[in-house]
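Quick one, tokens below:
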């Protein structure tokens, strides 16, 4: 049974689960439009502040593309299945070296066995709570590009190892810390490089390297880790749908830089996974109106989520 049916009626879930091709298209357009706006801002006023802002905003929108691919994995981005899969694959996944089919298979297993011994993501969340020193080391590795470079190198090696080995492809996802990474990298690499080239054509030759590769190797890795920690780090290892996952409240700045497209409402997503992301806030309000907020694991901010994960622990 869907966890949400223990707290919401079918009549309450049905309108929340309604998908919209118009809204799906708007979200994808908004994500790429925000990337274009960040580039335009730097192009119009090139200085260190607009440079840093562009890198951070584009890195957060790379996470946004991952989130929209996640929507497509749940068939929630568009009503039309073919459109859902095409856009999720080629406009959201491949530009960040991700693969929809691989992610869908892995991620649905995570939903089925959330925070149990069969959860493929348990290896990520079981590390928390940890110490502040450990978190700092992780964040420094992310922001300096060490994590991104290491994962990209591992992805290249995986693609080489899997070339022509169809049996190995079935188990490849377990070799990646982030399951959405494309196992057949060489199908995604031309799209990734194409974005770099396009940015270079729009601006100076170095724009693509600076405003696509650099954010991918740094800020994207950082916010991806923060999101992963906030969702399941230091939560209850059980089948309790109100405590084995965390919703993190996010203001405008957090939504811009860390948590785009309502990804912070993760508890609600686990309640009914096919509810589109843009309806999760309404679902959260409905659960609160039912008096469930005291039983739900909710962090007031991403800072509080990091504290729960061990930031204040020596």
């Amino acid at each position: 049974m869907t966890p949400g049916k223990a707290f919401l009626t079918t009549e309450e879930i049905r309108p929340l689960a309604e998908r919209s091709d118009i809204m799906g298209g708007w979200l994808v357009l908004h994500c790429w439009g925000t990337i274009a706006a960040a580039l335009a801002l730097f192009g119009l006023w090139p200085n260190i502040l607009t440079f840093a802002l562009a890198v951070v905003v584009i890195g957060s929108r790379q996470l946004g593309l991952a989130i929209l691919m996640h929507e497509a994995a749940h068939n929630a981005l568009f009503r039309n299945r073919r459109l859902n899969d095409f856009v999720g694959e080629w406009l959201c996944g491949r530009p960040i070296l991700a693969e929809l089919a691989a992610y869908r298979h892995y991620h649905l297993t995570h939903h089925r066995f959330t925070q149990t011994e069969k959860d493929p993501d348990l290896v990520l969340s079981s590390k928390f709570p940890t110490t502040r020193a450990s978190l700092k080391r992780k964040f420094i590795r992310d922001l300096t590009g060490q994590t991104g470079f290491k994962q990209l190198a591992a992805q290249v090696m995986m693609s080489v190892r899997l070339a022509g080995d169809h049996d190995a492809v079935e188990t490849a996802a377990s070799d990646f810390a982030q399951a959405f990474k494309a196992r057949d990298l060489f199908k995604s690499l031309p799209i990734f490089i194409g974005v770099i080239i396009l940015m270079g054509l729009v601006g100076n030759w170095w724009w693509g390297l600076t405003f696509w590769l650099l954010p991918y190797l740094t800020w994207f890795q950082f916010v991806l880790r923060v999101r992963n920690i906030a969702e399941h780090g230091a939560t209850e290892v059980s089948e309790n749908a109100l405590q084995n996952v965390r919703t993190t409240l996010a203001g405008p700045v957090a939504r811009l830089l860390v948590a785009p497209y309502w990804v912070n409402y993760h508890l609600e997503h686990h309640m009914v996974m096919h509810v589109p992301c843009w309806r999760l806030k309404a679902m959260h309000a409905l659960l609160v109106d039912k008096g469930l907020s005291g039983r739900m694991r909710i962090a007031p901010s991403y800072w509080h989520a990091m504290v729960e994960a061990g930031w204040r622990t020596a």
